[in-house]
Amino acid sequence: MKKKLAGTALLWLGLSMACAQAADPNLGRNLAATCANCHGTDGNSAGGIPGLAGMSKAKMLGLINEFRSGAKPATIMHQLSKGYTDSQLDLIADYFASRTPVGGAK
Amino acid sequence: MSAARRGFIKGTLGLSAMAALYGCAGAGKGAKGHVVVVGGGYGGATAAKYISMWSEGGIRVTLVERNAAFVSCPISNLVIAGEKQLSDITIGYEGLAKYGITVVQDEVTAVDAEKRMIRLARGGDLAYDRLVLSPGVDFMYESLPGMASAAAKESILHAWKAGPQTVALRKQLEAMPDGGVFAMTIPKAPYRCPPGPYERACMVAHYLKQAKPKSKVLVLDANEDIVSKKGLFTKAWADNYKGMIEYRPQSELRDVDVGNRTAILEFEQVKASVLNVVPPQRAGDIAAKSGLKLINNRWVDVNWLTMESTSTPNIHVLGDAIFPAPTMPKSGHMANQHAKVAAAAIINLMSGQPPSDAPLVMNTCYSFVDATNVVHVASVHPYDAATKQPQPVKGAGGLSAAPTEMEGKYALAWARNIWADMLT
């Protein structure tokens, strides 16, 4: 009996930990969609603004940090990048890295 | 083993199973039903596309729009200035077909929230599981008795909904004599597109400066001061249009003498060659007159986790029609963001899952100060659980330092991308 209980608790703990990062598994998708107005649906730009689909997580987070610090000059991204938390940006970068660029880079 | 303990184990397992379903599998999988979206602008078209796309066709989507094509309000001041044509800001709805969305060109005349039906002017009744209303604004002409007739509305234009009025105002400007006065009136905030009137003043002056340089632009603002991008507009007016643009704050329009093209203010009357009246606004008719709870008798009150009406279940409202959260502008960009919050929530709800508890919306708004130079304002608004509404992040967002041609290019690229994000 005790064993069974412990097993249940462990299973529960394991699942909770696995799920702790994103209460809603679509949070990354939803947050990334806030970028789509300018960077295109799923990060596939319609032109004139860089696309984000398929960009590696390291590259995206690196760029964001440069915008935030001012190391990379920007017209607007230095202001917008400060509106998202690190964990939100992590989810957004994961999401765009998982997207396939459509029709090549634009 | 006691019954209580058995219950505990069962409960724990149940919780684990739930966590597995919600937290680790894809929430929203298996969403089914029919969503009707009313209004194919920045909010409604985006909602239709994202509900269909994110539910992978599981939810059937019908978009009802009265016009044959979408015409963008952003960039329409460039049409008024003669820098763009109406065709440059007009896009059809055919791109939505690939998402399986049915687009119906019709007018919604009534909503029956009890029966979950809408009535169409031509197409009979349409049943929904959830309804999305994105009707934009309608004008409160009741505050301007002189504007009551259809003839008055054809003569004194708002051009605050892009389309035939945009072209008609352009024609009035073309017919205006050199040395004439273009006067525009701005209602008290909140109204659609806070910087829009000041951008219009710039763009009309830009045209007049070249074509009719003895003319004047008179801005009659009901507000205490310039509502948006004040420093940037003030500087642009001084640098580019000195002596041409005159700005008068606290000049609320009381009525219009249509025949004399005269704006009647509290203490004076202003006769214009072209009078452009942007009237006070409220939620679009179908949202304002369907029994949804309104704030100030004007704007729909919504739950910010779902964009659902606080009074009427299964009806979600987007865009300019809602009572905004603190510092949230009535903009096309923001309507698109509302639509994505609603789309995610609707898909979760229609698959038996709770909506996300951490939505975020953001705004980017570009204004032209002449044909090529542009300024922006931007902000980020994550949901705040304490106040139950989005709150702007302090230290994020902001304004341009000065107008630049680079932002002019980005403004047009923004339009191209957001139009694609809604319609293709």
Q: What does this entry show, briefly?
A:
The complex is a heterodimer of chains A (106) and B (424). Chain A is mainly alpha-helical and 106 residues long.
Q: Indicate the CATH class of chain A.
A: Mainly Alpha
**How helical, in percent, are the residues of chain A?**
55-70%
The number of distinct helices of chain B, counting runs of at least 4 residues, comes to 10
Could you tell me the CATH topology label of chain A. Cytochrome Bc1 Complex, Chain D, domain 2
CATH architecture of chain A: Orthogonal Bundle
Low-confidence stretches of chain A: 1-22
Oligomer: heterodimer
The percentage of residues in β strands of chain A lies in under 5%
Rg of chain A from C-alpha positions?
18 Å
Name the chain pair with the biggest interface and residue counts per chain.
A-B, 42 and 61 residues
Coarse structural class of chain B: alpha/beta
**Mean pLDDT over the full residue set of chain B:** 94
Number of domains of chain B: 2
CATH architectural group of the largest domain in chain B: 3-Layer(bba) Sandwich
CATH domain class name of the largest domain in chain B: Alpha Beta
Ranges of chain B where pLDDT stays below 50 over 5 or more residues in a row are 1-25
| Strand content bin of chain B | 25-35%
Helix content, binned percent of chain B: 25-40%
Shape of chain A: globular
Tally the helices of chain A.
6
Instruction: Tell me the name of the CATH homologous superfamily of the largest domain in chain B.
Output: FAD/NAD(P)-binding domain
